[in-house]
Q: What sequence folds into this?
């Protein structure tokens, strides 16, 4: 018998969520085949079988688990699955309901007397403790704790109120797990990195039809983000500090490839998957990477390996009403770019006539310990040249 243990997937989470068993309880599996999917604060990770065997589940989908915890067993050939005692409902969190209820949520149900009918009324597929218990909610018991009574619950989406509005902490909103992770990164960035910001106006009137022509020629969706990712990657040798990794406040380690992280947010939280070796890859490959990122974000199925290893970041802002956006600099990086949406601008020609051009705001946030304003302007200027004269191969 081999125990299936939860590996340490990242340094940010003390526990993960078991979101799917890809192999059924009692199913024969081969080495390397997928067994389960675990969700971290930013990604989904697949566990695979170390060897051949018959799988026995020890946890129910929706349970939280921690690194090192045994969540299943692989029985060897000849071992009788019936002789391996099945885990009890209390061990697995199993129940007769069809929705997924995490182990902390089940404990909250028992603690506060929340019924299954009330939980189902939330209309969620996965119910977590935060869906049932608003932050800082007092609960019943001894020692002067406040006793609470649940009001009747109407079918709704939201959290189960445990106290009347005038007795609780007044309509607190708890961010999603992904947003809490974003908050941690933002706090650390502002705490550790003395950042500055420079923004440059870029005329993309010629880049837009060029991108449309490349889309048709390459049969891959090309836009300004794709052009900018490639142009950024090609600047690695010319501006090595912009891609370097800080070692301390005075030194940084040179990067050998340009690993460009690109923000993706389709409503389920912000992700920053990484386009690998962006400076040496053709435009159609970069385009297919970005298209794949958007599709993956819709399903929320990013793997940890999709999100790590970036050495510069590009944040995308598609709302034409947004003039300038200042990105944070990720801890472990030195620079972050921001790309605004194209907007019309009336300009005067040398002949005194007026024409309408399409322009963007291209910004750069940078760690001022390593990059100065003049360097930032030169870097942005190189990108501006690449976008204003697309296809010439020069950056």
A:
């Amino acid at each position: 018998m081999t125990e299936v243990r939860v590996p340490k997937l990242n340094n940010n989470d003390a526990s993960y969520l078991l979101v799917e068993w890809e192999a059924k309880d009692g199913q024969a599996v081969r080495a390397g085949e997928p067994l389960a999917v675990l969700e971290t604060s930013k990604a989904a990770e697949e566990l695979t079988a170390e060897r051949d065997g018959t799988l026995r589940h020890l946890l129910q989908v929706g349970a939280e688990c921690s690194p090192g915890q045994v969540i299943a067993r692989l029985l060897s050939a000849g071992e009788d699955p019936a002789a391996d005692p099945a885990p009890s409902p209390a061990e697995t969190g199993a129940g007769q309901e069809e929705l997924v209820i995490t182990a902390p949520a089940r404990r909250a149900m028992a603690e506060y007397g929340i019924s299954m009918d009330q939980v189902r009324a939330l209309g969620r597929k996965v119910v977590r403790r935060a869906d049932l218990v608003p932050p800082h909610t007092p609960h019943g018991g001894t020692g002067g704790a406040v006793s609470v009574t649940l009001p009747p619950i109407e079918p709704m989406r939201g959290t189960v109120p445990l106290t009347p509005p005038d007795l609780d902490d007044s309509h607190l909103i708890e961010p999603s797990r992904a947003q809490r992770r974003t908050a941690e990164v933002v706090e650390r960035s502002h705490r550790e990195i003395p950042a500055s910001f420079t923004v440059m106006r870029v005329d993309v009137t010629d880049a837009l039809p060029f991108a449309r022509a490349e889309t048709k020629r390459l049969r891959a969706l090309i836009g300004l983000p794709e052009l900018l990712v490639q142009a950024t990657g090609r600047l690695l040798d010319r501006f090595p500090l912009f891609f370097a990794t800080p070692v301390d406040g005075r030194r940084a380690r040179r990067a050998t490839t340009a690993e460009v992280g690109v923000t993706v947010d389709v409503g389920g939280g912000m992700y920053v998957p990484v386009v690998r070796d962006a400076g040496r890859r053709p435009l159609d490959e970069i385009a297919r990477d970005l298209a794949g990122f958007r599709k993956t974000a819709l399903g929320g199925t990013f793997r940890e390996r999709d999100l790590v290893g970036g050495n510069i970041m590009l944040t995308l802002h598609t709302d034409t009403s947004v003039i300038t956006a200042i990105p944070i600099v990720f801890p472990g990086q030195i620079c972050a770019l921001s790309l605004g949406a194209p907007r019309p601008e009336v300009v005067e020609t040398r002949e005194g006539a007026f024409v309408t051009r399409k322009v963007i705001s291209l910004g750069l946030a940078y760690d001022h310990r390593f990059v100065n304003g003049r360097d930032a302007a030169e870097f942005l200027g190189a990108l501006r040249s690449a976008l204003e004269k697309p296809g010439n191969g020069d950056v």
